[in-house]
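Practice problem: Angiomotin-like
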Amino acid sequence: MVEILIKENSALKQELENLYQRVERTQRLEHEILKVHKGHEELVQSCERREILERAARARLQSDCVRYQELNKALREQVELLSTQILSRSPVPDYGVPENLRRELAKREGLIKQLISQNKELSAAKERQEIELAAQRATLQEQRTHIDILDTALTNAQGNVVRLEEE
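Answer key — C-alpha coordinates:
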Protein backbone atom coordinates (compact mmCIF):
# COMPACT_ATOMS: atom_id res chain seq x y z
CA MET A 1 0.00 0.00 0.00
CA VAL A 2 2.78 2.39 0.95
CA GLU A 3 4.64 1.48 -2.22
CA ILE A 4 1.58 2.26 -4.31
CA LEU A 5 1.26 5.64 -2.62
CA ILE A 6 4.99 6.28 -3.11
CA LYS A 7 4.72 5.40 -6.82
CA GLU A 8 1.60 7.53 -7.21
CA ASN A 9 3.30 10.38 -5.35
CA SER A 10 6.36 10.02 -7.57
CA ALA A 11 4.20 10.04 -10.70
CA LEU A 12 2.33 13.11 -9.49
CA LYS A 13 5.63 14.86 -8.73
CA GLN A 14 6.86 14.04 -12.24
CA GLU A 15 3.61 15.32 -13.77
CA LEU A 16 3.86 18.47 -11.64
CA GLU A 17 7.45 18.99 -12.80
CA ASN A 18 6.37 18.60 -16.43
CA LEU A 19 3.59 21.12 -15.91
CA TYR A 20 6.04 23.57 -14.30
CA GLN A 21 8.30 23.22 -17.34
CA ARG A 22 5.37 23.84 -19.69
CA VAL A 23 4.36 26.91 -17.66
CA GLU A 24 7.94 28.18 -17.79
CA ARG A 25 8.14 27.67 -21.57
CA THR A 26 4.78 29.36 -22.01
CA GLN A 27 5.88 32.32 -19.88
CA ARG A 28 9.12 32.65 -21.87
CA LEU A 29 7.16 32.50 -25.09
CA GLU A 30 4.68 35.10 -23.83
CA HIS A 31 7.61 37.32 -22.84
CA GLU A 32 9.09 36.96 -26.33
CA ILE A 33 5.71 37.70 -27.89
CA LEU A 34 5.42 40.85 -25.76
CA LYS A 35 8.88 41.94 -26.88
CA VAL A 36 8.04 41.32 -30.53
CA HIS A 37 4.69 43.06 -30.12
CA LYS A 38 6.32 46.07 -28.47
CA GLY A 39 8.96 46.22 -31.21
CA HIS A 40 6.21 45.98 -33.81
CA GLU A 41 4.26 48.85 -32.24
CA GLU A 42 7.39 51.01 -32.02
CA LEU A 43 8.20 50.30 -35.64
CA VAL A 44 4.64 51.12 -36.70
CA GLN A 45 4.82 54.43 -34.81
CA SER A 46 8.20 55.19 -36.35
CA CYS A 47 6.82 54.38 -39.79
CA GLU A 48 3.82 56.64 -39.22
CA ARG A 49 6.09 59.50 -38.11
CA ARG A 50 8.28 58.98 -41.17
CA GLU A 51 5.22 58.97 -43.45
CA ILE A 52 4.05 62.24 -41.90
CA LEU A 53 7.50 63.72 -42.45
CA GLU A 54 7.54 62.43 -46.01
CA ARG A 55 4.13 63.95 -46.74
CA ALA A 56 5.29 67.26 -45.26
CA ALA A 57 8.50 67.15 -47.31
CA ARG A 58 6.54 66.26 -50.44
CA ALA A 59 4.12 69.14 -49.85
CA ARG A 60 7.04 71.50 -49.25
CA LEU A 61 8.78 70.29 -52.41
CA GLN A 62 5.63 70.68 -54.45
CA SER A 63 5.02 74.21 -53.18
CA ASP A 64 8.68 75.05 -53.82
CA CYS A 65 8.41 73.57 -57.29
CA VAL A 66 5.32 75.65 -58.07
CA ARG A 67 7.01 78.75 -56.71
CA TYR A 68 10.18 78.03 -58.73
CA GLN A 69 8.15 77.46 -61.88
CA GLU A 70 6.34 80.77 -61.39
CA LEU A 71 9.62 82.53 -60.71
CA ASN A 72 11.23 80.88 -63.72
CA LYS A 73 8.29 81.93 -65.90
CA ALA A 74 8.57 85.51 -64.64
CA LEU A 75 12.32 85.49 -65.27
CA ARG A 76 11.85 84.17 -68.80
CA GLU A 77 9.27 86.88 -69.49
CA GLN A 78 11.64 89.55 -68.20
CA VAL A 79 14.51 88.18 -70.27
CA GLU A 80 12.28 88.05 -73.34
CA LEU A 81 11.06 91.60 -72.72
CA LEU A 82 14.57 92.92 -72.22
CA SER A 83 15.84 91.05 -75.27
CA THR A 84 13.01 92.47 -77.36
CA GLN A 85 13.74 95.98 -76.12
CA ILE A 86 17.44 95.64 -76.83
CA LEU A 87 16.86 94.20 -80.31
CA SER A 88 14.26 96.83 -81.20
CA ARG A 89 16.64 99.68 -80.55
CA SER A 90 18.69 100.89 -83.45
CA PRO A 91 22.41 100.75 -82.94
CA VAL A 92 23.81 104.19 -82.27
CA PRO A 93 27.29 105.19 -81.30
CA ASP A 94 27.92 105.17 -77.58
CA TYR A 95 28.49 108.93 -77.48
CA GLY A 96 24.93 109.48 -78.71
CA VAL A 97 23.24 107.38 -75.96
CA PRO A 98 21.99 109.53 -73.13
CA GLU A 99 23.44 108.77 -69.71
CA ASN A 100 20.10 107.77 -68.20
CA LEU A 101 19.60 105.10 -70.91
CA ARG A 102 23.07 103.67 -70.25
CA ARG A 103 22.30 103.50 -66.54
CA GLU A 104 18.96 101.83 -67.22
CA LEU A 105 20.60 99.31 -69.54
CA ALA A 106 23.33 98.55 -66.99
CA LYS A 107 20.69 98.18 -64.28
CA ARG A 108 18.67 95.76 -66.39
CA GLU A 109 21.75 93.72 -67.28
CA GLY A 110 22.57 93.49 -63.58
CA LEU A 111 19.01 92.38 -62.89
CA ILE A 112 19.23 89.72 -65.60
CA LYS A 113 22.49 88.38 -64.13
CA GLN A 114 20.95 88.35 -60.66
CA LEU A 115 17.84 86.54 -61.89
CA ILE A 116 19.91 83.94 -63.74
CA SER A 117 21.96 83.37 -60.59
CA GLN A 118 18.82 82.98 -58.48
CA ASN A 119 17.37 80.57 -61.02
CA LYS A 120 20.49 78.37 -60.80
CA GLU A 121 20.35 78.42 -56.99
CA LEU A 122 16.68 77.48 -56.99
CA SER A 123 17.27 74.63 -59.43
CA ALA A 124 20.08 73.28 -57.25
CA ALA A 125 17.88 73.51 -54.14
CA LYS A 126 15.11 71.64 -55.96
CA GLU A 127 17.51 68.85 -56.93
CA ARG A 128 18.77 68.54 -53.33
CA GLN A 129 15.21 68.29 -52.05
CA GLU A 130 14.33 65.64 -54.63
CA ILE A 131 17.35 63.58 -53.55
CA GLU A 132 16.33 63.96 -49.90
CA LEU A 133 12.79 62.85 -50.69
CA ALA A 134 14.05 59.79 -52.58
CA ALA A 135 16.20 58.83 -49.58
CA GLN A 136 13.23 59.20 -47.24
CA ARG A 137 11.12 57.00 -49.51
CA ALA A 138 13.80 54.30 -49.49
CA THR A 139 14.02 54.40 -45.69
CA LEU A 140 10.25 54.21 -45.43
CA GLN A 141 10.17 51.14 -47.67
CA GLU A 142 12.85 49.47 -45.53
CA GLN A 143 10.81 50.15 -42.41
CA ARG A 144 7.67 48.74 -44.01
CA THR A 145 9.57 45.56 -44.87
CA HIS A 146 10.82 45.36 -41.30
CA ILE A 147 7.26 45.80 -40.00
CA ASP A 148 6.11 42.94 -42.22
CA ILE A 149 8.88 40.72 -40.84
CA LEU A 150 7.99 41.60 -37.25
CA ASP A 151 4.32 41.07 -37.96
CA THR A 152 5.06 37.60 -39.31
CA ALA A 153 7.20 36.83 -36.25
CA LEU A 154 4.40 38.00 -33.97
CA THR A 155 1.86 35.82 -35.79
CA ASN A 156 4.17 32.81 -35.54
CA ALA A 157 4.79 33.43 -31.84
CA GLN A 158 1.06 33.72 -31.18
CA GLY A 159 0.52 30.45 -33.03
CA ASN A 160 3.16 28.82 -30.83
CA VAL A 161 1.42 30.09 -27.69
CA VAL A 162 -1.89 28.66 -28.88
CA ARG A 163 -0.20 25.35 -29.67
CA LEU A 164 1.50 25.23 -26.26
CA GLU A 165 -1.73 26.08 -24.49
CA GLU A 166 -3.48 23.25 -26.31
CA GLU A 167 -0.79 20.81 -25.18
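Discussion: The chain has a mean pLDDT of 87. Students who identified this feature from the C-alpha coordinates alone can consider the problem solved.
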